Amino acid sequence: MNSNDETIVIKTYNVLLLLAELLFLILKVVYYICEDMYRLIVPTKKKSVAGEIVLITGAGHGIGKELAIGYASLGATVVCWDINEETNNETMNDIKRMGRDSVYAYRCNVADREEVFRVAEKVKKEVGDVTILVNNAGIVFIKSFMNQSLDEIAQVIDVNVTAHYWTLKAFLPNMIEKNHGHVVALSSIAGLFGGSYGTVYCPSKFAVKAIMESMSEELRELSNGKCSINFTTVYLTFVRTGLVKKNIKIRFPRLMRELQPQEAASSIIDAQRRNYRNKSIPSFWLPMSKIGRHLPDKALECIRDFADFGLPGN
């Protein structure tokens, strides 16, 4: 066999090998699509959180408070963080009145890097290693971009985005060391669709999605697919917590109904216990956003106009 024949054989072999890999890839993609469809009918079994140490930021009120109560009722040790020491202690005391003593409260401004690391060390010494981190703290200023002050812009980015890096830096290393843990981050429907009066808030929630997806993929790659740390991003419609002071404008209110904090917290805990990577509440918003990405821009504008959706800007 001369060199030309050898070259042809090698090229043919490489082509056949590539075709085999593509076929295997297609089969795997089809399998996981079928698995997802099956899970719509038969959801993944909930895992236990009893004995886990759950740290919740923004635990002093609203969703954070209900998350703390929910995890405590499931047998987890709960660590409450909030910038408001008084309301944070109220959450802790409410849980203790339930007969659950494994609850701790720490004042912490999650936008302050040094404070996050300092309080995190205190938690490790006094409580133990956090195994479930829930980045819930957030703020919102819904107004036109030209009316946003520079301080408001910085505050939204610091709390809604940068704080995620500080808490991940503080608690993720130990999860990696033990190959055990779960990170939950609260995004928003505003993190799936940009909108008027959301020029600052919407990008901060888009960023949460990117942080979580990137971190999950990074750990999967570094561990050669053996990472057992889970990441769950939750996209909520507007929750009645006092963050949004005015009513949402929409032609069909049922599509964007305001959730009660307890309802939202229950769905978040359910998503975490089932190891969902992404979960929108209500559930139809996530697939709708994926469909919307494939529509022409003008078509999306027509849908927005038809739905008459808008945020209550100032």
UniProtKB/TrEMBL annotation:
InterPro entries linked to this entry: NAD(P)-bd_dom_sf, SDR_fam
Keywords: Lipid metabolism, Membrane, NADP, Oxidoreductase, Transmembrane, Transmembrane helix
Protein name listed in UniProt: Short-chain dehydrogenase/reductase 3
One CC-aspect GO term: membrane
MF terms (GO), sorted A to Z: all-trans-retinol dehydrogenase (NADP+) activity
Primary location: membrane
Gene: LOC112457500
CDD domains: 17beta-HSDXI-like_SDR_c (cd05339)
Taxonomic superkingdom: Eukaryota
Localization per Swiss-Prot or TrEMBL: Membrane
SUPFAM superfamilies given in the database record: NAD(P)-binding Rossmann-fold domains
